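Justification of resources, computational component.

The compute hours requested in this renewal are based largely on the per-chain cost of generating structure records like the one below. Each record pairs the submitted sequence with a full C-alpha cell output. That output is archived, and it is also reused by downstream analysis tasks.
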Amino acid sequence: QASTTGVSATLQSDNSIKLTATDGRNIEIAEQLSGASDAGDSVTGFFGASLTQGGTEARSQTFKADISLTSNSQITVQDSGDADVMFAGIAEGATQTTNASAIASSNVLTVDDANNSIRRIDQAIRDVDTLRGTFGAIQTRFESTISSLSTSAENVSAARSRILDADFAQETAALTRAQILQQAGTAMLAQANASQQGVLSLLQ
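The structure output for this chain reads:
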C-alpha cells in the first residue's frame, strides 16, 4: 500500500518490520483493543507505551526519529513552534543554520565520518561534471565563433586577391597603351627627320 499511504514496510533480518516514509511524513499506527479490561488495568501498546489506563479514553503516543539532511550548500532548520513537532537542540520557534563542511576537513575515523566523506566526494564529482558541461558548452560556442571568423577572413582575403588581380590587369593595359603612344610618337619624329633630309638632298 506504499502508493496509497506513502509508507513502505520491509522485513528485517531479525524478523522486525521497518516502516519508511521517504517524503518525511508522519507515520501513524493505530492499535485497536478488543474484549473487556478492568478499569484499573493498564493496557500497553507499541514499545510498552501506556495507551489506556483506568478506563480513560484512547490516547496517542508519539515516537521520535532521526533525520539526515545532506546538501552541498547551507542548511537552515526552523522550529515551527508546534509543541507536537520539535527538534532536539532547537528551541521552540528558533532557527538553526549549519554550514557545509569542506572535503579537506573530512576523515574516515568512524563509519559515519567515512560515509560523510563519500557523500562529499560524490557531490564534488557532480559539481565537476556540472562545470564541465557548462564550460564545454561555452567552449563549443567559442569554437563555432572562431570557425565563422576564420571563414570570413578567408573570404576577405580571396576578395582582396581578386581586386588586386583586376587592378594588375588595368595597369598592364595602361602600360601597353602608353608604350604604343610612345612608339607612335617616335615613328612620327623619325618621319619628320626623314623629310628634312630629303629637302637637303634636293638643295644639294
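Residues 38-45 have pLDDT under 50 and may be disordered. Residues 111-203 form the longest helix (93 residues).
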